[in-house]
Amino acid sequence: MERTLFDTLNEDKDKVVSNAPTEYSVSQISQQLKNCVESNFSYIRVRGELSRVTVAKSGHLYTTLKDDNSVLDAICWKGNLQRLSVQPEEGLDVVCTGRLTTYAGRSNYQMIIETMELAGEGALLKMLEDRRKKLAAEGLFDESRKKTIPFLPEVIGVVTSPTGAVISDIMHRIADRFPCRVLLWPVVVQGQRAAEQVIAGIKGFNDLPKENSLRPDVLIVARGGGSLEDLMPFNDEAVVRAVAESDIPLISAVGHETDTTLIDYVADLRAPTPTGAAEKAVPVKTQIVASVLEYERRMVLSVENRLTNLSQHLEVLERGLGNPLHLLEVAMQRMDQSSIRLDLSLKNWLTHKKADLRNATIGLSVITLRAGLKNHQQRLDDLSERLRLSMIQNTEKSEQKLLYLSSLLESLSFKKTLDRGFVLVKDKATGQAIKHVSSAINAENVTLQFSDGKISAIIDEK
């Protein structure tokens, strides 16, 4: 068959087409690139500065890692974000571990972050200093908001690891100083879940009702020493805010004496070590007992001095008043003399009247005598009645005066003093009142007279 020009041209066209590159769809090329990137960069560590840190409503983190020349998009899914040991913040210099992948929707590549850590101790310290300044500016570290640690707590709550020497040291120190009830809220004290568990422990104790006997009077948040990275949970901003919000007074005891964390600034009291926290939480029982005994000794001495001063004052008043019996003696003597004069006066009057009667009867007739006798009898009866009334009045006045003097004597009697709680101390051998300590020591055996009776006692010089 004869070939035409048209056939020749078609063959040349087929040769050109066969030499062209392979044709891909957009999705195919995107998948090829994705496979290439993920197979070659399935595990990488990238250092860079965090920028444009954004957490979506879904909980996923979107950010970029950058250096002086380049920018790398990065994503941290919600599940990994909650387990990061570093809180992503703008400007942090970090080292991220994860894998590279591509995003076909924008034709770019990005890193999927699985772990994140600060790029160096300097960056970590800078982050902590910035966070400290931020919290201080909010007033969380002000002394005015700190609560007083109770002097004698009945229950102490401890937020720390249940294993290790920390809880053991705290328990032993409290038992040595002033034993009381200790409740442990077990937590891990380092790692990704430490901050979350410490917050739960603080809030858990605070959520107990105030009338609940298990609610602590003071909290201790403690852990042993470690590196700066190990202590990072206690620099977590959420932990610091949980400490600030605690209604129960809180003592921080994280690390050794030279270690400082952010909760040390916000806690109501900082202890250099966990053992130091136990010492600040409870006093020394023996010192309290010694103080109480000293106060008791001072109180007894003060009362004794007061009683001595009152006794001396009473003696001075007694000397100025004199013996009340003397006043009664004079009154009784006057009453006796008045009674004697009354009797003599009555007898003399009767004698005179009898004489007048005898003189009057001389030369009188029986009728006159009877008439005169009757008149005189009447007059005598009147006088006798007047005399009787006068004697009754005098006697009543004397009795009233006697009662007044007796009442005065009774009010001045030492028995009234005994009724007010005082005691009369007498030498049992001589019966004499004892007014001085030296006399009491020499007497040895004494009689204590109370308002309702007497008892014997022996003086102990001690």
What does this protein look like?
50% of the residues lie in helices and 19% in strands. The strands form three sheets. Strands 1-2-3-5-4 form a five-stranded mixed barrel. The protein has helices at residues 5-18, 26-40, 78-81, 121-137, 165-177, 194-206, 237-245, 262-266, 274-281, 285-321, 324-361, 366-411, 414-419, 437-443; strands at 44-55, 61-66, 71-76, 93-103, 108-118, 155-160, 181-186, 218-223, 250-254, 269-270, 424-427, 445-450, 453-458. The mean pLDDT is 84. Helix 6 (194-206) packs parallel to helix 7 and helix 11 runs antiparallel to helix 12. The protein has four domains: 20-119, Beta Barrel (OB fold (Dihydrolipoamide Acetyltransferase, E2P)), CATH 2.40.50; 127-142 and 151-283, Rossmann fold, CATH 3.40.50; 323-411; 418-458, no CATH class. It is an alpha/beta fold and 462 residues long. The radius of gyration is 56 Å and the shape is rod-shaped.
CATH homologous group name of the largest domain: Succinyl-CoA synthetase domains
Biggest sheet, open or closed, and with what strands and sense? Answer: 5 strands, mixed, barrel
What's the number of helices?
A: 14
Helix content: 40-55%
Fraction in beta strands: 15-25%
From the helix content, strand content and strand pairing, which structural class follows?
Answer: alpha/beta
Span between N and C termini?
A: 151 Å
What would you report as the Rg, rounded to the nearest angstrom? 56 Å
Using the alpha-carbon principal axes, give the shape: rod-shaped
Identify low-pLDDT runs. Answer: none
Q: If classified by CATH, what would the architecture of the largest domain be?
A: 3-Layer(aba) Sandwich
Mean pLDDT rating = 84
Q: In what order do the strands lie side by side in the largest sheet?
A: 1-2-3-5-4
How many β-strand runs? Answer: 13
Domains (count): 4
